[in-house]
Amino acid sequence: MKPLVSYVITRALMFLLSIWGAFTLAFFFFHLIPGDPVSAYLQQLEQQFSQTVDAADAAAMAAEMKARLGIDGSLPEQYWRFLGNVFIRFDLGPSFINFPKPALEHILEKLPWTLWLLGTSTIISWILGFVVGGIIGTFRNNFASQFLINFSLVISQIPSYFTALFALFLFGYWFVLLPTKGAYDPSIEKDLLNPRFLLSVARYAIMPAMAVVMVGVAGTLISTRSLVTTILGDDYLQFAHAKGLRRSHILMRYVLRNAMLPQITGLALSLGFVLNGFYLVEIIFNYPGMGSLFLSAIRLLDYNLILGIVLMSITVVLAATFIIDLLLPLIDPRIKLSD
Amino acid sequence: MTDARPLLTIEDMRIHYDSVRGAYKVVDGVDVEVHRNEIFGLAGESGCGKSTLVEGILRLIEPPGHIHSGTALFRPFPEDPERSLDLVQLDYHEMREIRWKHLSYIPQGSMNSLNPVMRIRDQMTDVVMHHEPGGQNEINRNIAAALEMVGLPESLGALYPHELSGGMKQRVCIAMSMLLQPALVVADEPTTALDVNVQRAVLETIAHLRDQMGAAVIFVSHDLAVHAELVDRMAIMYAGVVMELGTVYEIFDNPQHPYTKRLIHSIPALGGPRERLESIPGMAPSPLAWPEGCRFHPRCPDAVPACSSATPRTIELDTGRKVTCHLFDPDIDLEQGSA
Amino acid sequence: MFVVDAWKRSGYFRVGGIMLAVLLAIAVLQPWLSQLALQNPDVSPMSMGTFEPYADPSLRHPAGTDKLGRDMLALLFLGIRVSMLIALIAGCTATGIGISLGFIAGYKGGWVDAVLRTGTDMVLVIPSLPLLIALAAYLPTISIPVMSLLLAAFAWPFTTRIIRSQVLTLKQRPFVDLARTSDQGDMSIIFLEILPNLLPFLGVSVAVGMSSAMLAEIGLQLIGLGPASINTLGLMVQQSVQSGVLAIGKWWILFAPVSCLIAFFVALNLINIGLESAFNPRLRSVTGD
Ligand SMILES: Nc1ncnc2c1ncn2[C@@H]1O[C@H](COP(=O)(O)OP(=O)(O)O)[C@@H](O)[C@H]1O
Ligand code: SF4
Ligand SMILES: [Mg+2]
Predict the structure, then answer these.
(1) I need a surface site. Which of A11, A108, A314, C199 has the fewest CB within 10 A?
(2) Burial bucket for residue A23 (CB in 10 Å: 0-12, 13-18, 19+)
């Protein structure tokens, strides 16, 4: 088991190193953006309460806020402090939104919505794409297959927020079947045990999910079909036929199973990128997920929250790759534990 | 040796590949008989259609290829030697009944003929279960016996194909081919791409197939030296047709057809350097447009005027050997080409 | 020329090529086309209140007018021109960066390659849209070139990857060895022996770069962080979404620019598929022909 151990250790080190590298890049990127969020915030407060605040008081307050936000002192100082807080104490510090509510709390509030909406639609599109891609890869020479593959090729590169707009128009305004904004009916008591609430959550997710699924299916379908086409030409498939195995058995055990292994990587990667790709769909539907949260954070130059979200996205992507690296040699015998 | 009812009678077999430029007539009228318990050799330069012919009999030709016409009467039932099945006419289910139980196959690309993500034992079990389902213990015993017969340990069943050497994979395929004790085994270039020592072991295993199990073997190879060691009777193919057919002694000791003569002469002396067979001057013709008259005439040193205009008939000499060449046709005017 | 080959070999390329050519023609002829639609040499497509707001499509205004009383067709032509320009600059810049880095990594190998590859992977992992949003939000002014460069900054890793892997494969080929042993310099090997073989991939790379630049541009605009002074198709989409045209039943105001953008994406994607299936036989199974 020696090679396995060293393999896991190398991968784990690479994983941590990449997180640290990406985190550092992102930290300096955002902190080098000119602007002082605290003064802007104080000014805004002043206007809001139309109070004249004593200059000395204001300065003291600004200094105190900066200290609590962790944006006092030199940039390297801030960097090391933040790094320590995040990776040792898992503390991102407070956020501007409802100051001093911790940034992490904001994220944990919104994360489930994004995971529910985009995680579910990603998995649905993968399953649909895999099954349909497998079928049209096996039965290539008929009108339906030709049509489906060409249709998918055409729509695969259309951004999902366009399909979102079409869905919105068609089902939200034209036929008025589905709600156009939000994640649940606000008139229903928000309780995870309330079936009416759950039903409304599902109902509100249909349209945005549909938008994501349409484009996602096309991508998986194209790659699955091309994998299946390759496998069908492989020698072991001809041999399987010569052995007189049942067609359905060949399809399941020889074609789909062999195509599924590489596609699992694809699924893990798209799950990893869930936090990246679909901000705009959330925004179009006013969905209360990470996308909307990030936008607010950017508008306020809310460093802690911004970095928290970016770090979260990066970690999820890297974790997905890391897990694939660990799992794939176990599920796919063709992949050896090397490098 | 010859009995009244051959195991397999192939008549006027034609296999074409359709293309926009016309049909590739890869196999273009082949007549061959294979008797019970004999090793029948199929020789000829690469590309002459040997694999296509046997794949046709095995019904493994895929579009755009198809069997254009011809019959292949197969009589695999020892209790009823008169009963024949035309392999060309069987539908998918009837063919599946025949496969492996009566007609098995050692494919040309044995290196890649095993499913890369299934253990050897599972792949062997797969075949048995599809034809003669039985208890797991009995199946395991059969698999162990088959592996032992080709000189492989039973423990190898737990491995995946990529963990085996080329020769091992080849022998796994051979072991697989005899699992159900079929009447006929088709072995396509089973020794090509193996080093000489492994070649010898494989040849011995195939001889074993016939001696121990009473199977007949169609042995395909472009390597005449291998035929000389193994087969009983053989056919020499050129450009999609059989040029000469006879016992291995007749062919090697007393070749008649001009092409056979060239081939025999191009075999390197024992222990001398191995060369490929294309040492006959001239290029192999294209299946898209075979030469008029005799297909060999552009390269034939003995050609007469008739050769470029009239297609030679197949002439049966004494002892049943057959030659397709004008020089042996008593009825033809060699200068004019008319009978 | 590889374009001619691709045209001959792939139906996808032909369809995509024709679509892109039409869009390109509109972009080039835009000043004249817009005038034609406006029927008044003194107004610009952008100037507000030229016509009745929210006029339905008619002979005079084939695509209707928007909330600000501008002729949608004239505006659309302008949008195509500006978006095309930004995408082209961004696509070419990204390709330029990608080629340079890909070449250096693939040709030099060793630790140079390792560093560049890690960097590329890092940029691929970092969510680009958020960074772009942040950049756009805090830049004081955004002009067409700045916008293009911004978009290019995130579109290059793809090209770097392709070029690197292609250079690695080509390096194995005999003709490069031949050039090496015959004492040719690195630069001349790159330009004379390797680059010509990569032209189809550069085509793919420019198309992908253009696509991702447009994608990002629309993203910025939809969030409302794009520059409102540059009339891209993305801005037109954003303005129609903002003014809620769907809710008042004026859906064509939204779907006119959306259709143009979809035409763009589809054209670029078809060109891609065409190039890949024409020049990369392994990928031919993608299209199944
Ligand atoms: N799909 C195809 N389309 C056209 N020609 C084909 C196809 N497959 C095989 N051929 C042709 O069939 C000929 C015979 O091939 P094959 O039977 O494999 O020869 P052999 O086994 O004797 O070396 C070759 O010339 C090859 O070009
Ligand atoms: S028929 Fe003529 S060309 Fe053909 S083999 Fe005989 S002699 Fe040669
Ligand atoms: Mg062959």
Answers:
(1) A108
(2) buried
